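seq as requested:
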Amino acid sequence: MKVHHLSCGSLCPLLFSTAKTPGAKRNEMVTHCLLIETGDCLVLVDTGFGLDDVRDGKNRLGRPFCAIARPRFDERDTAIRQIEAMGFDPRDVRHILPTHLDLDHSGGLPDFPEASVHGYVKEIDAAEARATLAEKNRYRPAHFAHGPKWVRHAPTGEKWFGFDCVRSIPGLPPEILIVPLVGHSRGHSGIAVKTSDGWLLHAGDAYFSNAEMHPTKPSCPAFLRAFQVAAAFDDIARRRNQERVRLVARDEKVNVFSAHDPYELERFTG
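struct tokens:
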């Protein structure tokens, strides 16, 4: 398999910083997605913003989100346009694995209407039910109006580095796993991909800043820490799973990264 690292949307919140790195841009956040060539098809991990989001963001994503996150809309950043620019046929994207279905992770689903969308059963059910006010805001009906081909999964079989996981995903090679990391949302998950250099773990929004993965002195900018607490469906579970991810990140066989840290993206893209 060949893995491509993409950013499918930029966020420029005024108050949030992803790292305490000298010279860091305080308000630049990416939407880190993966495009995986399996030999038989293409697989997307997260989608970022879609074409319709770029064209009508305030209505599709909501004015409060746009005011706070200040997304920078550019059609060239969407997954479908990047896939086309790489010379691939978007119709070859036959499987999508969202870490979760928040509006900044699922906006590109309508651009790939024939793809099977695999997810932890609790997340798909939550996105359909939208049971709380917070979930009405985080899950946008426009992203699912095309009727995604949902494939619900529950953890089964052997654990992955101590985590429950979903193995044997239909249509996908065994090197791709869903790893539940609940807390940020009801069914938030990481996506693990085995490569020739070891494992990648896309941890989604299990954490936001690379500084949170420091092995002995984890830290997080204050406003970003407050946002994570406020956004969490279950903050106790979120913090517990973040600590477990931090432990896994110490293993030299696992390369961990999150969805929004620009410095982690640069590790892979140069």
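The chain has a mean pLDDT of 93.
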